[in-house]
Amino acid sequence: MSQARLRRHDIRTAISRIPVEYRHIASLTLLVTYIVMLLGAYTSAIGAGLSCPDWPTCYGTWVPFLQPEIIANSPYSALQIFAEWAHRGLAMTAGVLIVGTTLGAWVTHRNTPIVKWSATAALVLLPLQVILGGLTVTEDLQPTIVTTHLGVAILILLCLLTTCLVAYLRR
Questions:
Q1: Largest alpha-carbon pair distance within the chain?
Q2: Which of 48, 98, 112, 144 is deepest in the core (most CB within 10 A)?
Q3: What is the CB neighbour count within 10 angstroms for residue 63?
Q4: pLDDT tens readout for residues 85-142
Q5: Share of the chain above pLDDT 90, in %
Q6: Which residues of 6-19 are buried (b: 16+ CB within 10 A; e: fewer)?
Q7: Domain segments of the chain: what residues?
Q8: Catalytic residue positions?
Q9: Which residues form a coiled coil (predicted)?
């Protein structure tokens, strides 16, 4: 067996010993992504879309709650700032999970094209979603940008739902 083939075999063997199955990771990614969408809708509904006025930081810091003067001097409530800040943080977590789900699809479902390509489609859409998230803030909630941000989120969610469902059906 060649060195490269042996290494791939070793990686697959190591992954197969992990007690969590791929479908569980795909499900977690789907759930976290959905929660990000719900939190984004909540943030919008409470008028907090600009409560972190800069991007990617929030008031020039990663954790605005460590500086109480930021909260005290903001025209937004602590709840509004927290909602926007939490939406961004959870979105970053979802992004990491999407990367892991895609890599996992290529390793564990290499013979299942729909799993590989639906996960890959979610990953390909991810940079666009990040850019739209930033533009949502920097362009003062322009309706076209906000709507496109939601539309891409829905596409990512559909890709992840496809990945998850087919992974469960193929077990």
A1: 65
A2: 98
A3: 12
A4: 999 999 999 999 999 999 999 998 888 899 999 999 999 999 999 999 999 999 999 9
A5: 80
A6: eeeeeeeeeeeeee
A7: 21-170
A8: 84
A9: none
Contact 37, 158 (CB under 8 A): no
76 dihedral zone (left: phi>0; alpha: psi -120 to 50; beta): beta
Q: Are 119 and 165 in contact (CB under 8 A)?
A: no
CB atoms within 10 A of CB 51: 25
Cα of 40 vs its chain's centroid, Å: 12
Distance CA 167, CA 149 (A): 27
3-state DSSP assignment of residue 68: helix
Q: Where are the alpha helices (DSSP H) in the chain?
A: 3-16, 22-45, 68-73, 78-108, 113-138, 143-169
Give CA angle at 113 (109, 114), nearest 5°: 100
C-alpha dist (Å) from residue 70 to 55, 64, 140, 162: 16, 7, 20, 42
CA gap 26, 34 in Å, rounded: 12
User: Alpha carbon 81 to chain centroid distance?
Assistant: 20
Q: Is the peptide bond before 68 cis (omega within 30 degrees of 0)?
A: no
How far, in Å, CA of 119 to CA of 14, rounded?
22
Which amino acid is residue 2, in one-letter code?
Answer: S
